[in-house]
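Got a spare moment? Tell me how you read both lines of this record:
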Amino acid sequence: MHTYTVLIIDDHPIIADAYKSALLKIASENSTIDFSIEMVTTCDAALEKIRGKQPIDLIFLDMKLPKSSDGQFLSGEDLGIEIRKQLSDAKIIVATTYNDNYRVNNILKSFNPEGFLIKNDIAPSDLITAIETVVEGTPYYSKTVLKLLRSHMNNDFFLDKIDRQLLYELSIGAKMVDLPKTIPMSIGGIERRKRQLKEIFDIQKESDKVLVELAKDKGFI
């Protein structure tokens, strides 16, 4: 029997329990595999596990998590990037409510999860299929993700960590003069980033408030 180590990173108990139930059902129907499951609900607890030098085979990762206590990890997307650095062999399954093409493409480009599910798409049977497919070594995308991929194959839209940090700081009302304290760039560089973000979202003549509202709507904050 092969035992897979599993880490569930999600602060919604119902969702975390759904993952656990699916794993237990798979194990109950397949005598050759089992799952050793741990669950955490915060970025800090997840980082402790990710950096704990213990191998993890499968990670369920929520995108909408509160930022880490040191402010360096703003969401599940930053955790996904860290997982790729620390646990190169781990397979990641993302399940999120975001179904905007900007957000989906950014997640795929930043750490490319093996499984990508939109929560509104999935029934329990779909979740089981996704887990089995990913464990076997094949990527699994739910129907909405596949539709977005087909519609935006040539999309070169991508926000890096500095972009997302800038959006976050603007969302909490940080002043431009203070931003170099948290973002490793000059004020001029930060201004150029902000202009680029407005170009990306096609709101060049709009205010920072409009930029923040649009970024929130698309799930980047």
